[in-house]
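User: Please predict the structure of the protein below. I'd like the answer in structure-token form so I can feed it into my own downstream comparison script.

Assistant: Understood. Taking the following sequence of 73 residues as input:
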Amino acid sequence: MDTTTIDRARRSDAAARLADGVRRGWAGVHPEDVAMCLEADAVPFAMTAARTDGRLELRPVYADGAEPAPGAH
């Protein structure tokens, strides 16, 4: 990912909302959330989100279609 895209994401409204959540002490928002989100290729998968039974569920998606080893996620 080029640095222009990362810089734009760092300055985005979404990043500003996360920073505001940190200042307000919102549960589940960590001061390093934005920085961690912007780390390219830090893990070998992406996350998808879907509503399941009224709640948001995250699942890893691997680029090569491989499944993780049992207990790896």
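That's the full token string. The mean pLDDT is 86.
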